[in-house]
């Protein structure tokens, strides 16, 4: 009788072990299945991706709008385009689709919505200060929003599985966000940062308060040396000389120049002089896009031309 009981216990133990192993396998398969569903295939044409993003005033995701031209492969370039004052990544993506086909680049345009990133403080100024203008207090680096750009870049790389060049572009308000990112971002994983038609700048001057200067910012000479060694391109529209709103005409901004071209040239010269003062390399370049005013599409094409020798047939795949 005892031997029969022992055999029964042994059988039940083996059965329990088999059931447990089977259950773990099923759960694991379900987790793998869910993981696969979380990364949809990167299809030709328009698509949208939601990125979980902790910065901003709420937990809303950042929407990234994509366009993949028919001839693009992972060895070809990716163009991450930050829009201007309106922040409409979907519309900016759509307006750049013809250029995407012409230059065979994927377009990825993030939407940093005003609901999540209200005002210039959260977008153009990178939440460096706890208020817009010179009245705010400088916040710890962990509160700055430039890390969100790093996560956008990583998300775009994952989604596209790109092996080619990645270019980071910002126009107008997006250009302001990019120029401060080029100065204060930690480790940009891109091949170029293009700042186009920025309205005004944070000068490399420790005697001028933020946001017009760097007084009080936790930025070392080593930080600036790393920034000046980055592949930064300053783009100016040849006809971008209007002072119409939303052009900033404060005394502090006008001290940088009376239009966007003057301000960009003066910012570039100031950064070049600062690099010389620090005895460090200065890799930045600046270009004028002939015939362009304050126009995001023309400036984007000017940027693409810097990196593409021969455009594709404009009608291909359209």
Structure overview:
Strands 1-2-4-3-5-6-7-8 form an eight-stranded mixed sheet, with helices on both faces. The chain is built from ten helices and eight strands. It has a single domain (45-307), classed as Alpha/Beta hydrolase fold, catalytic domain (Rossmann fold). The model is unreliable at 1-16, 18-37 and 312-318 (pLDDT under 50). It is globular. The chain is of the alpha/beta class and 318 residues long.
Order the strands across the largest sheet as they lie in space: 1-2-4-3-5-6-7-8
The percentage of residues in β strands lies in 5-15%
Give the tally of structural domains. Answer: 1
* Low-confidence regions: 1-16, 18-37, 312-318
State the helix count: 10
Distance between the termini: 82 Å
Q: How much helix, percentage-wise, in residues?
A: 25-40%
CATH level-1 class: Alpha Beta
Reported by name, the CATH topology is Rossmann fold
Mean pLDDT: 88
Beta-strand segment tally? 8
Fourth-level CATH superfamily: Alpha/Beta hydrolase fold, catalytic domain
Second rung of CATH, namely the architecture: 3-Layer(aba) Sandwich
Overall geometry comes to globular
Gyration radius, to the nearest Å?
25 Å
Question: What brief labels describe this structure?
Answer:
318 residues; alpha/beta; Rossmann fold; eight-stranded mixed sheet; 10 helices; 8 strands; disordered C terminus
């Amino acid at each position: 009788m005892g031997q029969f009981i022992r055999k029964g216990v042994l059988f039940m133990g083996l059965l329990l072990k088999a059931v447990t192993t089977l259950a773990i396998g099923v759960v694991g398969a379900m987790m793998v299945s869910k993981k696969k569903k979380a990364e949809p295939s990167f299809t030709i044409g328009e698509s949208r991706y939601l990125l979980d993003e902790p910065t901003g005033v709420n937990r809303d995701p950042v929407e990234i709008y994509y366009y993949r031209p028919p001839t693009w492969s992972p060895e070809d370039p990716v163009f991450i385009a930050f829009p201007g004052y309106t922040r409409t990544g979907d519309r900016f993506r759509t307006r750049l689709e013809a250029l995407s086909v012409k230059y065979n680049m994927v377009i990825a345009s993030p939407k940093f919505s005003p609901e999540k990133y209200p005002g210039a403080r959260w977008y153009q100024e990178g939440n460096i200060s706890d208020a817009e203008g010179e009245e705010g207090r400088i916040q710890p680096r962990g509160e700055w929003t430039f890390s969100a750009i790093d996560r956008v870049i990583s998300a775009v790389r994952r989604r596209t599985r790109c092996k080619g060049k990645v270019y980071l572009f910002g126009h107008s308000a997006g250009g302001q966000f990019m120029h401060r990112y080029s100065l204060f971002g930690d480790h940009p994983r891109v091949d170029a940062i293009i700042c186009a038609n920025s309205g005004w700048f944070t000068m490399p001057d420790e005697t001028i308060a933020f946001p017009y200067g760097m007084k009080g910012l936790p930025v070392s000479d080593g930080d600036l040396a790393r920034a000046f060694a980055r592949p930064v391109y300053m783009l100016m529209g040849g006809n971008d000389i209007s002072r119409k709103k939303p052009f900033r005409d404060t005394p502090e901004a006008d001290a940088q120049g009376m239009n966007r071209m003057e301000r960009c040239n003066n910012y570039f010269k100031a950064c070049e002089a600062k690099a010389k003062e620090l005895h460090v390399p200065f890799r930045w370049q600046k270009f004028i896009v002939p015939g362009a005013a304050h126009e995001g599409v023309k400036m984007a094409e000017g940027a693409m031309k810097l990196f593409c020798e021969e455009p594709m047939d404009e009608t291909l795949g359209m």
